[in-house]
Amino acid sequence: MIDMPIVRTSREEIEVYRFGPIVSVLIPTMALVIQAFVPVRFRFFAIFDLPLLVTIFFAVARRSQVAGLLTGAAVGLVQDALTHQAIGLYGIAKTVVGYGASSLGVKIDVENPGTRLLVTAGFYLVHQAAYFLVARNILGATVGWLWARTLLAALLNGVAAIVLFAVLDRFKHSA
Amino acid sequence: MENFFSRYRNASILVLVLFAQVLGLAVQVKRPTESGGTSLIRFWVVSAITPFEKALVNTSQGVRNIWRNYLYLRGVRHENRDLKAQIERLRIEQVRLSEDAAQARRLQLLLGFKEQFISQTLAAQVVGSSGSDQSHVIYIDKGANDGIKPDMAVITPAGIVGKVLRVFRASSQVLLINDPSSGVGAILESSRLQGILQGTAAGETMLRYVMSDEKVAPGERVLSSGGDRIFPKGFPVGTVQQINPGSDLFLNIRVKPAADLSRLEEVLVVTRMVENAPQTSEPSKPLRAADILAERLPRVPQKPPAVPAKGTAAAPAPATKPPAETASTNPSQGATAASTTGTPPTGPAVVQSLTTGAAATAKPAVKTSGPAAIRSAGATPDSAATKPAAKPLEATPASGTAGATTGTTGEPAVAEPAASKPAVNGNAGKPRQNGSAAKPAKPAVPPPQPPPGEEVPR
Known about the structure:
The complex is a heterodimer of chains A (about 180) and B (about 450). Chain A is mainly α. Chain A has helices spanning about 5-15, 20-40, 50-60, 65-80, 90-105, 115-140, 145-170; strands at about 15-20, 175. Chain A has one domain. Helices cover about 75% and strands about 0% of the residues of chain A. In chain B, the strands form two sheets. A six-stranded antiparallel barrel of chain B has the order 1-2-5-4-3-12. In chain B, strand 7 (about 195-200) and strand 8 (about 205-210) form a beta hairpin. Chain B is extended. Classes of the chains: A mainly alpha (about 180), B alpha+beta (about 450). Chains A and B meet through helix 2, helix 4, helix 5 and helix 6 of A and helix 2, helix 3, strand 1 and strand 2 of B.
């Protein structure tokens, strides 16, 4: 009884967006292809995680937790398939991020570039932490946690998100 | 219950999806060999992504080729001149090294060693990567259709790159040596200390399991030891960059990979490696005194043919110009000569296709100054005309055998060192004392050759 008015108020205040089916498939696919192709020529590009940024963008824009976690799971599993590791590591990490981003999108306005930077950097850390925990505790893999590199990557991904989200904003329509 | 799920619907779905993935991971941990669903997912994903990557690679390469080959030609002449000079320097260096290699092979043969060499490679183009810092893998555009199999070594002329991990129909996944799950048997070149080269999470390569009381110098080369049965022995792995005492009994040696792993465009997949006893030009049977005496007997030089065979090393060229010049100015001539002087096709762990030409140019410079070279060169069908001129009364069945082209001449043991030594020691111009085969050619012997440390005048 108490929760209802708050939720309704939040949903009314924050706009929900939708995407066409082609855009929903094509953009994550392009992100995966670019992520796999560009580091071959420019190794430093591997510090970016375009699939993660796309997951956050869709989750925040749709503001649906189920859609967010399913998008994250699908993108993560495809990304896993491109690595040599067990399938599910990125899947779990991006599922968590997709759910978290859509939950956050319901509560706060993430249209502002500053907010986008902070949200993306924060979710990058969550993503890395989830990956690290799963890899260490379930797979027993030797994964190193490098604080300086991780924080730098979080910041760079946050900056990249500002640019990328501005481009992707053109593809969204009000629901 | 229904109320619970409807109330916590989103959280329930999250838990369900996570649980399914954790379960999938547990199954994969339990069964390390990939099968069923996971391999199917990989197959689909790689089949879907790789065509896009191939298209991107081909497009970018096409644009780059047009730019480089037709538009941006500045400095090409200068570069060409530099490269020619470099080739000359390398040829001379090869002459020196080939003698050492021959000696090493003789010793290996004596000790019953077996040598590995790459007999077949397949060039492949790098079309993609995992795109992740946690997984150092690349994708190449050759797969099962091209004969690629798991665990094949992947190299570049600079050094080793990794091994084939998974093979798909038209592409393959290659695990780089800087991945934490990779391991390469390695040996330090000068100290001969062995260890295992492993990657780190940061993408560096470390040489492990070298005891902390051993002395390792920065800059020392690291080679593959061949112990992993994947990479050929003696192939460059990298250079020691930094040495730190480890927390345990071993040193932490950081190695800079010889191949630039961050800029891989084309690689070679070793599709076949041959292991056999080293082949030398030593005879397989004991030498008889009669053979040595026969060598010293004067011989009647046979008339040279009217038209010398084209493209042979032992063409009358040695009579008019210095042998080294003859060998170095025409690689094709050198190739014939080298293949007939009993040089095995490759040294250990050297790409055959790359070294054949090098050895070819190297050997003649050493050998053509002595009768053995002339004799052996005469073993080729093309240069059959020159054989009698050099050694018309050759009676020993071992000399000038047809098998010379495969690196197994059966020349007498005495003749081989005698033939090669003077040239190496810088006495190429001196008349040979024990080889009568050289006598007919004596008037045509070119001016004395410089010592090996100097460049051959051209």
